[in-house]
């Protein structure tokens, strides 16, 4: 990261350096330090509970939403939270058991920005369905009304 930022500063000073991560290793000091060097640390969180993350993300090994959220808090508010909205067997981003707890995590973290998006190409798994931009806008409108900056991509 240091080399990347140094080269950016030397040759492309106007460029923005962004890193997208699933946030599973941000608890490691060297990972957090590297992410603090970039302009946009984009930390991904698709589900608000371990059970829902198991359905939609199918993580391998240890994955605990609460631990990841606590690690995200170490960034203060200086990060972008990215979340995919979709419908799948056993998971629907618009359902109360997903949307309500996810919104509470957003309120707790108050990131600099939130990016919500949906599928933009055929998915490898069957039964995944995308949201429209209008649907996502309606779902996140309460957060927007609370002053949280949200970018919506369809």
Task: Describe this structure in a few short sentences.
With 154 residues, the chain is of the alpha/beta class. The protein has helices at 2-11, 29-37, 50-56, 65-73, 96-109, 133-145; strands at residues 18-21, 40-44, 80-84, 87-88, 91-92, 113-117, 150-153.
Task: Give a description of the structure.
With 154 residues, the protein is an alpha/beta fold. The protein has a single domain, classed as Alpha-Beta Horseshoe (pyruvate-formate lyase- activating enzyme), CATH 3.80.30.10. The chain is 40% helix and 18% strand. The protein has 6 helices and 7 strands. The strands form 2 sheets. It has a 5-stranded parallel β-sheet, covered by helices on one side. A two-stranded antiparallel sheet has the order 4-5. It is globular and about 45 Å long. The model has no long low-confidence stretch (mean pLDDT 94).
């Amino acid at each position: 990261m240091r080399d990347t930022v140094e080269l950016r500063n030397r040759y492309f000073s106007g460029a923005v350096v962004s890193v997208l991560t699933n946030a599973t290793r941000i608890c490691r000091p060297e990972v957090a330090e590297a992410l603090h060097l970039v302009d946009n640390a984009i930390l991904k969180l698709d589900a608000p509970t371990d059970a829902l993350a198991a359905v939609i993300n199918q993580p391998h090994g240890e994955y605990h939403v609460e631990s990841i959220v606590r690690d995200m808090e170490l960034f203060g508010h200086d990060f972008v939270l990215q979340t995919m909205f979709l419908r799948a067997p056993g998971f629907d981003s618009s359902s109360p058991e997903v949307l309500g707890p996810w919104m509470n995590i957003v309120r707790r973290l108050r990131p600099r920005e939130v990016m919500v998006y949906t599928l933009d190409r055929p998915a490898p798994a069957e039964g995944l369905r995308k949201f429209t931009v209008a649907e996502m806008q309606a779902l996140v409108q309460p957060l927007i009304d609370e002053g949280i900056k949200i970018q919506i991509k369809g």
